[in-house]
Design brief:
single chain; mainly alpha
Length: 350
């Protein structure tokens, strides 16, 4: 192991063998991401299938069960942290207000980008590749200025609010394969705080608003999103139409959450968050799994392989009941395990 690698090697967390194993997995996943990017540009039909109909449908379940694994191997995170690993980052720290603003902006980005899948990204490989590349560049720029995962992975990344919502009762904790020392760059650290959820942090008004928007709004937003068909050709006249039902669902579920949170005691706040998290991921798979196999409401939208003429009629309601039951058991009924996503590395010497 070189001097540089030893400097970034979390020796109290990882054996040398584990260190190289995680680096190999990170490199492999990064190469898979690069291959998908190439396909999106040069083989768009294949790239769109790989990204939107294979990778993205797996992601919510991954966030629920293995959040720490994903946080270790996410190719965007690997790219974002390259400046830090190679000693090129200025390692600035964000204030609580700055981080709260980034968290809020991440949620705004999420709710802005996802409906545009119907209008643009689901059927346009170049557009999807451009979106991903924009995030890669933005994340890497932030990595040159800010400490570890603070600015992108725990700040502006539009996927992070969903990780935080779904990852409240993860299956197990894994070693931190990125941070060699804890610099307290994010307080509380989403990676190292047991049972973290979006309402855990109330340090600023921005954090509080972020928690409300993602916990209360996401289940209804998902419901509305699945009731909008894909546009085969981009049309500026229909651009606002893709937001109407997701926004309606967002408003309704947010109102329900606000009323429920007023009736629930502080000690049961996390349980309420878990209910809405389970409702969101269950709603996603309630519609997404049938669509993958040819049973969707909009014909070929979200289709991976058409098995509608091969599978029995009871297939769809069965998987809908099973997935909904599983997620509510795992996230609401199952006892909280008091686990963090990853082990906190040793604190840096002051």
């Amino acid at each position: 192991m070189s001097a540089t690698e030893r400097r970034f090697h979390p020796e109290k967390q990882l054996s040398e063998q584990s260190f190289y194993l995680w680096r190999a997995i990170q490199a492999a996943i990064w190469l898979v991401g690069a291959a998908i990017m190439i396909c999106l540009v040069f083989f768009p039909n294949l790239g769109l299938t790989l990204f939107w109909n294979i990778l993205i449908p797996i992601a919510p379940a991954l966030f629920v069960l293995f959040t720490g694994v994903w946080r270790n191997i996410c190719p965007l995170a690997t790219t974002n942290l390259m400046p830090r690993h190679f000693g090129l980052s200025e390692r600035k720290k964000l204030t609580a207000v700055q981080l709260g603003k980034l968290n809020l902006l991440a949620i705004v980005m999420l709710y802005t980008i996802v409906p545009l899948r119907h209008a643009v990204f689901n059927n346009n490989g170049i557009a999807t590749a451009s979106l991903i590349m924009a995030m890669v560049v933005l994340g890497m720029i932030m990595g040159f200025y800010y400490e570890w995962k603070s600015a992108w992975c725990s700040g502006l990344c539009p996927v992070h609010p969903v990780e935080k919502l779904y990852g409240g009762n993860t299956m197990f904790t894994v070693p931190n394969a990125h941070c060699s020392e804890c610099q307290n760059c994010v307080v509380p650290c989403p990676d190292s705080t047991p049972n973290i959820h979006p309402i855990s942090t109330k340090r600023t008004l921005y954090h509080q608003l972020s928690g409300l928007l993602i916990v209360g709004g996401l289940p209804g937003f998902i419901w509305g999103w699945f009731h909008v068909p894909d546009e085969q050709l981009f049309n500026w006249n229909n651009i606002l139409g893709v937001y109407q039902l997701p926004l309606l669902g967002f408003i309704v579920s947010s109102i329900i959450y606000i009323i429920a949170s007023m009736m629930v005691s502080t000690k049961n706040e996390q349980k309420l968050v878990s209910v809405f998290a389970a409702a969101g991921v269950s709603c996603y798979y309630y519609y997404r799994l049938p669509a993958l196999f040819g049973f969707g409401d909009f014909h070929t939208d979200g289709l991976l392989i058409n098995l509608s003429n091969s599978l029995p009629t009871w297939f769809v309601p069965t998987i809908q009941v099973l997935t909904t039951g599983f997620f509510f058991y795992w996230m609401v009924i199952r006892k909280q395990q008091h686990r963090s996503w990853v082990l906190r590395p040793p604190f840096a010497a002051k």
